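dumping this here before i forget
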Amino acid sequence: MIQLVTKVDPATAKALDDLVADGQFSSRSDAVRVGINRLVDESRRAKIAASILAGYQRIPETPEELELARSATIAMIAEEPW
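structure:
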């Protein structure tokens, strides 16, 4: 693994230590690793969402497709054992 070094303010370090003490993470490094992975994943998902949106803006659904989706959604909800 590649090692990264960073500085944080005392309040952030304390909050991080509290998360570790509460058992949410095994160490500071674990918490930072999870945070970075979440940030990277969030960015990746945002790019995918933007790409999907651009596709729908380029080629919008037809009224027929929208009606089919609406009907299918109503049917799925009706099948739920509420």
